[in-house]
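Quick entry between incubations.
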Amino acid sequence: MGARAIWKGVVCVGAERVPVRLYSAVQAAGVSFRLLHREDQSPVKQQLLAPDQARPVPPEEQRKGLEVEAGVFVVLRPEELRALQPPPSREIRVEEVIPAGLDLRWFDHPYLLGPDGDEPGYFALAELLEARRRLAIVRWVMRRRHYQGALHARRGHLALSTLRHPEELVAVERVQVPAGRAPDRRELALAEQLVEALADDFDPAAYQDEHRARVRSLIEAKARGLQPALPRPEAAPAPSPDLAGALEASLRATRRSARG
Amino acid sequence: MAEREHPDDDEQGEPEELEPGPRALWSGTLTFGLVSIPVELYPAVRPARVALRLLGPRGRPLHRRYVCARESRPLTPEEIVRGYPVEPERFVLVEEEELAALAPRASRDLDLRRFVPRDQLDPMLLDRPYLLAPGGQSTKAYHLLAATLERRDRAGIATFVMRGTEYLAAILSEGGLLRAVTLRFADELRGPEQLGLPEPRRAPAARRRQLEAALAELERDALLPELLHDENARALRELARRKRAASADVIELPETAEAGGGGGGQVVDLMKLLQERLGEAPAPAPRAASRRSSGGARAGSPTRARAGARGGAATTRKPAARTQPRSKARRRRG
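Done. Structure below.
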């Protein structure tokens, strides 16, 4: 049973066109609560209130504004906002093709793409990006907004992740690690050995949200009228003063468990 | 519907009320074998600077508040409780403290038990990026782990519980700074099979050659960050600038009124905090600095903390109706 696509577009690589369907790659898996007013257990709703909180402001009295400096707003009228909307387009335009390994902070929301006709084109594009370990940086217009993203391939299928704007990322590269903080050579050698002893391939399926299961059983118990006893908080472990000693002991323990 | 179903639900959430200085989202312990490293977690993304605000008739920014559906009056966070629907109109109430207490001590640590090649972190799994600052007196173990991860080109993987939600995280090092990125759990991701996509099959050579040539034309060595500038925001800013110059529809609030956005000082403070925590010596480290160029951004302004229910000033985006009383707008999971 096929899922419904969110949107249809055409990946444009120069003059080449590959029609695609866009699907959300994320599905909710958490425990979904409602927010209630404690007193009468009625669900709360959200309302827009004036600063004095005296009354809700109905939609026809609301205006949109942009704060241009602290305390100064410019009101943007609906017709002006409409005029700013980019013209509708189906093009997902490839702007550049770069080596995979982009800083992880850029990646925002993932989508999967499916072919929409031209299956050969779709699978050829996936094959080429995957085999050459490349990302295609793309821009497109969807639902009257501009988007930018990275087109990549994942086990033979195309995926698209939106990318964050440069303005959104904290400029960590400006933080300078002080010189003279280089780790001790022996400690570094031990730490590297420990990392290699614990090295493995990444298997996302090996991790489950255990807390989610605990929340579910709490809810089930409470639904049956039980009030489960809560575990007592424990103290955090103290940092070890002897780094090399702690690393050596960790290595011994890791090797023992690997043998046993 | 999941709240981030569409890219429309981008990061232009509700700006949180101004806070004095950067505040850690979480502080805890990174453990690596028997070595424990106290750390503090800060967001590595910040709110979009250009967010449309909803204004009232007299130009005052509106605030989104939770109100009781029956009494239609705003509620304080203490008056709000999470409920899980067990049957129509019947909820099991779950307190914040109960959720917090569910997490055993160990789950509140980031226990790095596995180290994976960095390039195996699937972009589809990436959720939110964070920075880790040394949390304790000694930074020796922090620097050691940072150097080790960078030299081995590996990321440590761990799960941990933060504010009542369990996260899967990868810990990596970049230029001597430890970073975390939360990852989606595998069951939060849909696969091609679930979507009913056709099985991959080898494309005809002719079509492959056409696309190969077209891709080759666009080949570059690295990302051009200019391609990622926010076009939507640019257009809004431009319009607002023109109108202001023409004195059209400009509202100046009196000094005492609450201003929104701003807060550029916060990021400066976060930089300063990181700089101080990493060690006192302010000497430049050119070698580390040059290695830190993998597509980072340069810009400075407020650290993003997702809006909580109590203080969010209203923007034009509606948050999902189901959310939590005292936490990030996006987290609905318990």
